[in-house]
Structures are given as structure tokens and as C-alpha cells.
Automatic annotation (TrEMBL):
<dbReference type="InterPro" id="IPR016163">
    <property type="entry name" value="Ald_DH_C"/>
</dbReference>
<dbReference type="InterPro" id="IPR029510">
    <property type="entry name" value="Ald_DH_CS_GLU"/>
</dbReference>
<dbReference type="InterPro" id="IPR016162">
    <property type="entry name" value="Ald_DH_N"/>
</dbReference>
<comment type="similarity">
    <text>Belongs to the aldehyde dehydrogenase family.</text>
</comment>
<keyword id="KW-0560">Oxidoreductase</keyword>
<protein>
    <recommendedName>
        <fullName>Aldehyde dehydrogenase domain-containing protein</fullName>
    </recommendedName>
</protein>
<dbReference type="InterPro" id="IPR015590">
    <property type="entry name" value="Aldehyde_DH_dom"/>
</dbReference>
<dbReference type="InterPro" id="IPR016161">
    <property type="entry name" value="Ald_DH/histidinol_DH"/>
</dbReference>
<feature type="domain" description="Aldehyde dehydrogenase">
    <location>
        <begin position="34"/>
        <end position="495"/>
    </location>
</feature>
<dbReference type="GO" id="GO:0004030">
    <property type="term" value="F:aldehyde dehydrogenase [NAD(P)+] activity"/>
</dbReference>
<feature type="active site">
    <location>
        <position position="272"/>
    </location>
</feature>
<dbReference type="Pfam" id="PF00171">
    <property type="entry name" value="Aldedh"/>
</dbReference>
Length: 507
């Protein structure tokens, strides 16, 4: 096969040229030992967009070798922070220049609306790269007093080395930046495995890596099936760190493989996993605003979000009023073709995900939950699911306990603050949580009591690049974003310097 594909998009009257090879050492290449392909689908039409090379474990070996060489020669400790910053800012400039094209390609392969891809995902990607570019020349250690007359100690914050990074399909460009930016800032090199469902924008970004002027081997992009490429990275003896965003089940496998390989300690494995995030509505809340935040918490990205506010609990005194507001807001959400400017949300990513979500919907119905809106399948092509709200829920129901990853919301009721916190924390997950109240003391009490890595007060779902993000319980380990993400890619070395003490021997 050739290593490019010409893709014509009729809605845009536009043709894209997409690299389809493995990106290793700043070149697009074929697999060394496999003819296997990954077929990228358009979830709105269920048709194949193009096919790309699927990396084998041997290809992963070659990419890791390239990344190791770059780490030891042209990156790592061999380049200044200011140069890393310059290249990262240049890459951000190029992404900004091509934002419209990248957004349209993201819509083609992922399904989300162009305006969301461009104005949210890609805009945040640019900000993320620039934020960490600002950190690149500010990686500092400490000087530690030992004995002022004879000794001192200092710490060096060294890049941890070669990083295997595995990203999901729900935010292909944005998750790329979350992983790449802090790693580059401290001087790590990267072998990136994008999701096999959404490989196209990661490959297109690789072209911009070359244009920005990064030396070969610093960022390598290898689309691959999870059990092949992902498993090879997690178990690789020359990969110093693995960073993964995805399901809790896969996260466990990665942790196990990392430990069994070169004993990557927990600090060298960061996992951003699933969630079943609660959203609490207290009687003092601004109900109009709270209903908007609850609606976006459920509907954003068609519910395909690890921090989706998929459980909303409402105080009994405002239950009916708030539910009416929420239903009215959710009914305004239009799920349709991402190239249509009127669309708010696109299709689900795949037939597998579509079937999984419908299985949960049927489970909810069979266990006695009531769908007050939605719950009926469309007849046209595309993996579309209109928003569904369930009431009459119970804690033991599957739709209440398990992550659905679609536009499905469970609504419950509580009487007291203590009951609300208990319901919210009754989950094996701990990624996000939200609460709405005008009582400042209540906001402080409840935000402290909620068992989640991120808590939103009188808002929901939006994140900032300078604020850390990560989970508790089975929602993962480690942190992304903010200065905390840098620590995930740093190895701290202590240097003891003797300038005055004489050793008598034998002791």
C-alpha cells in the first residue's frame, strides 16, 4: 500500500491527504513484519475512511530504539529548556494554523461536531502545549543543607526517559497534547499509540512535528491494536514510563505488564481511567444554571467522557422543579452530523460502543428504571443515540453502578446533605463530582467530603491546563495537567557533594 490516502469529504467539497504509515524517526514507514491494517471508520456513515498500517510488536521495538537514541543524543539532557520551549511553541503555532483542517479530520474519524473539535478540543490542545512550553526552562531541583562547613546536597530533576503513551478515542487530539506536552517539557521522548478507532489526527499531527523542527525519534506515532501495541509498550524492557487513558479493565492489565517487565514502579505508570461521576443539586442552588451544567455534564461529547456527570441526585424539596428544567434543557440537544453547524453532539464512536450503550439502556428498563426522555432507536445510518434520562433508579442497578460512556443519565433524589454525600460516594470510581448550592459553608463541607479527584462547585466538566486532573479509587493513579503532571515524567536524583570532610580510615 502507499503511505498516504486521499480522502474526499463531499459535505465540505474538500480533499484531505492523510499519512497512513507508522511514524518512526520523523518518517512514515511500513511495518517491518506485518501486512495488517487498521480501517478507520466514519461513525456518522459507518463507512471506511481509509486504512492505516497497524504496528506489530517488532515495530514497537524499533520505535523504542529510535526514542532511546534521541533521548541519549538530541533530547533528554542534551538540549536546553529554552530550545524545548521554542519547538513546543512552534508546534502549537502550526496546530493553530491548521485548526480548521484538523477539526474537520477529527469530525470525520470521531464524529464530534467541527465547532466542538475546533473551539474546544484543538483550542485547548494549543493552550496545553504553550502552557508546558512555559515550564520547559523552569524544571528546578533543590539545594539541601547538610553541613555548611563541609558538605551540601542538591537534587536534579531529570527526565525519566522513554515514555510509552496510550491515548483513547473520545478526545484524540486533546489527549495527545495532555500526554505529549509535559513529557516534552521535561525532556522525555515518546512512543505514542493512538486508539485504533481514531488514528488519523495523531498521524496528521506527526507531520507537524517534522515541520516544527523536532529532531528524529523524539515523538513516534504507531497506530496498533491494543493487545498488540499497547501490550508491547506496557511490557517493554526499555520503556521507562507508561501513561494510559482508558478503561479500568485495561488499566489493570497495563499495571500488571509494567510490573512484570522492568519493574516500572507505580510512580512510572500513570493511569487515567473510568468514572461514574455524581452531580448533587441542593435546594438553595440556582436551579436554572444548575440544570444547564447538569445537561452539559451528561450530553457533552455525546456522553463519551470519563467525567460525564452520569448520576444526578436532587434534593427532594426541588426535585420536580429541577427535573422539569433539566428535561427541557436536554431536549434542546441535537445529535447529528458533525459537519452540520446546528449539531451539538455526534454519533457514538463505533458499533461496539453503540451496542454496549443500548445493552445498558435495556438493562435499566428491565430492572425497573423509567426512561422519561429517549430510549428509542433511530432508523438512519450512523451510531446515534439521543439523550436518555432514567428516573426511579436504585443503587444496585447496573446503569447506576457501571460506566456507560454514552448520553445516559440516572436521576435520583435525596433528603439530607449526609444522604447526598453517601449516594455520591457509593461507587468504586472517584474521578469527578459536582455540587450546586448557594450556601458557602455547605459547598466547603460537601466538596471536602466527596471522594473524587476533581470536584466542581456551581459548574461542571470544564478543566484548565494549570489545574491538576486525576482520580481516586479505581479511577486511576497519578495526575495530568498543571505542574503536577511534570512530576509524572521526572526522576529525582540526589547528589551529595563533599568539599571539606576528611575520612579517617579505618573507621
Amino acid at each position: 500500500m502507499t503511505l498516504t490516502a486521499e480522502i474526499h469529504v463531499a459535505q465540505l467539497n474538500k480533499t484531505f491527504t492523510i499519512p497512513t504509515g507508522l511514524f518512526i524517526n520523523n518518517e512514515f514507514v511500513r511495518s517491518v513484519d506485518s501486512e495488517e491494517l487498521i480501517h478507520a471508520l466514519n461513525p456518522a456513515t459507518e463507512q471506511i475512511i481509509c486504512s492505516v498500517v497497524a504496528a506489530s510488536s517488532a515495530d514497537i521495538d524499533i520505535a523504542v530504539t529510535a526514542a532511546r537514541k534521541a533521548f541519549q543524543t538530541t533530547w533528554g539532557k542534551n538540549v536546553t529548556g529554552s530550545e524545548r520551549s521554542r519547538l513546543m511553541n512552534k508546534l502549537a503555532d502550526l496546530i493553530e494554523r491548521d485548526a480548521q483542517d484538523l477539526a474537520e479530520l477529527e469530525t470525520l474519524n470521531n464524529g464530534k461536531p467541527v465547532k466542538i473539535a475546533r473551539d474546544v478540543d484543538i483550542a485547548d490542545t494549543i493552550q496545553c502545549l504553550r502552557y508546558y512550553a512555559g515550564w520547559a526552562d523552569k524544571i528546578t531541583g533543590q539545594t539541601v543543607e547538610v553541613d555548611n562547613k563541609a558538605k551540601l546536597a542538591f537534587t536534579r530533576h531529570d527526565p525519566i526517559g522513554v515514555c510509552g503513551q496510550i491515548i483513547p478515542w473520545n478526545y484524540p487530539i486533546n489527549m495527545w497534547a495532555w500526554k505529549v506536552a509535559p513529557a516534552l517539557a521535561v525532556g522525555c521522548t515518546i512512543v505514542m499509540k493512538p486508539s485504533e478507532l481514531t488514528p488519523l489526527t495523531a498521524l496528521k499531527l506527526s507531520e507537524l512535528v517534522v515541520e516544527a523542527g523536532f529532531p528524529p525519534g523524539i515523538i513516534n506515532t504507531l497506530p496498533s491494536l491494543g493487545p498488540v501495541g499497547g501490550a508491547a509498550l506496557a511490557a517493554h524492557l526499555d520503556v521507562d514510563k507508561v501513561a494510559f487513558t482508558g478503561s479500568t479493565i485495561t488499566g489493570r492489565k497495563i499495571m500488571e505488564a509494567a510490573a512484570k517487565s522492568n519493574l516500572k514502579k507505580a510512580r512510572s505508570v500513570s493511569l487515567e481511567l473510568g468514572g461514574k461521576s455524581p452531580h448533587l443539586i441542593f435546594e438553595s442552588a440556582d436551579l436554572e444554571q444548575a440544570s444547564s451544567w447538569a445537561a452539559i455534564g451528561m450530553c457533552f461529547n455525546s456522553g463519551q467522557d470519563c467525567i460525564a456527570g452520569s448520576r444526578v441526585y436532587i434534593q427532594d424539596t426541588v426535585y420536580e422543579k429541577f427535573l422539569d428544567l433539566l428535561v427541557a434543557k436536554v431536549k434542546k440537544q441535537i445529535m447529528g452530523d458533525g459537519f452540520d453547524e446546528k449539531t451539538h453532539g455526534g454519533p457514538l464512536i463505533s458499533k461496539t460502543q453503540y451496542d454496549k450503550v443500548w445493552a445498558y439502556v435495556e438493562s435499566g428498563k428491565s430492572q425497573g428504571a423509567t426512561p422519561i426522555i429517549g430510549g428509542e432507536k433511530r432508523t438512519e445510518k450512523g451510531y446515534y443515540i439521543d439523550p436518555i434520562i432514567f428516573t426511579n433508579i436504585r443503587p444496585e442497578m447496573k446503569i447506576v453502578k457501571e460506566e456507560i460512556f454514552g448520553p445516559v443519565l440516572c436521576v435520583g433524589v435525596f433528603k439530607t446533605e449526609e444522604e447526598a454525600v453517601s449516594l455520591a460516594n457509593d461507587t468504586t470510581y472517584g474521578l469527578g463530582a459536582g455540587l450546586h448550592s448557594k450556601d458557602a459553608n455547605q459547598c466547603m463541607r460537601v466538596s471536602s467530603a466527596l471522594e473524587a479527584g476533581t470536584v466542581w462547585v456551581n459548574q461542571y466538566i470544564f478543566l484548565n491546563n494549570n489545574v491538576p486532573f486525576g482520580g481516586k479509587k479505581q479511577s486511576g493513579i497519578g495526575r495530568e495537567l498543571g505542574s503536577y503532571a511534570l512530576e509524572e515524567y521526572i526522576s529525582v536524583k540526589a547528589v551529595h557533594w563533599n568539599f571539606g570532610e576528611k575520612l579517617d580510615w579505618p573507621l
